Amino acid sequence: MVRKFLSVGAAAMLLLSAVVCQAGDKYEEARQLFEEYVPALETYLDVVEKAESAPVCARAINTLANEAEELAPKLRELNRKYPELQYEQSVPPRYAELEKKADALGVRFGRSFIRIARFMEDPAVAKANDRLITAMARLDPAGE
């Protein structure tokens, strides 16, 4: 179970860092993609951080999986267009705020697993989590 959580966490961090690292002046599309995904991630985090039941967690996880499934082809297309940016280590100064936001969301996302862990015995939560892992794997440029 913990390994599954770590897989989702790693995939989310990959998404956040990939989108932010691709956010150069020339590639404004990456910023737009990031801003499209952030509200869904924030909603997921807000719900999970307050969740007191398995059904609430399962719904939140499935909603985020829906967003990740929708985002995956867009992110893969962006990576096809600008493959060199997958390896960029620095973010242009004008995108420093996006990087800070991505870092903060990454920390919250990691912590969300603690909240979800207590509901992982529930079949709906386990199934939703598996679905999210699959969706997040598709966010990886190689995850087609």
Topology of helices and strands:
Elements: H1 2-21, H2 28-50, H3 54-81, H4 96-117, H5 123-137
Helix pairs in contact: 1-4, 1-5, 2-3, 2-4, 3-5
Largest sheet composition: none
Q: pLDDT below 50 for ≥5 consecutive residues: which ranges?
A: 1-7
Provide the domain count: 1
The number of helical segments is 5
| Rg, Cα atoms, Å | 15 Å
From the spread of the alpha carbons, the general shape counts as globular
What structural category do the secondary elements indicate? mainly alpha
The overall pLDDT average reads 80
Tell how many strands the DSSP assignment holds: 0
Order of helices and strands: HHHHH
N-to-C CA distance? 24 Å
* Share of residues in helices: over 70%
Beta-strand content: under 5%
Quick overview:
The protein is mostly helical and 144 residues long. The chain is 75% helix and 0% strand.
Describe this entry's structure for a reader:
The protein has one domain (2-137). 75% of the residues lie in helices and 0% in strands. It contains five helices and no strands. Helix 1 packs antiparallel against helix 4 (96-117), helix 2 (28-50) packs parallel to helix 4 and helix 3 (54-81) runs parallel beside helix 5. The chain starts with a helix and ends in a 7-residue tail after the last helix.
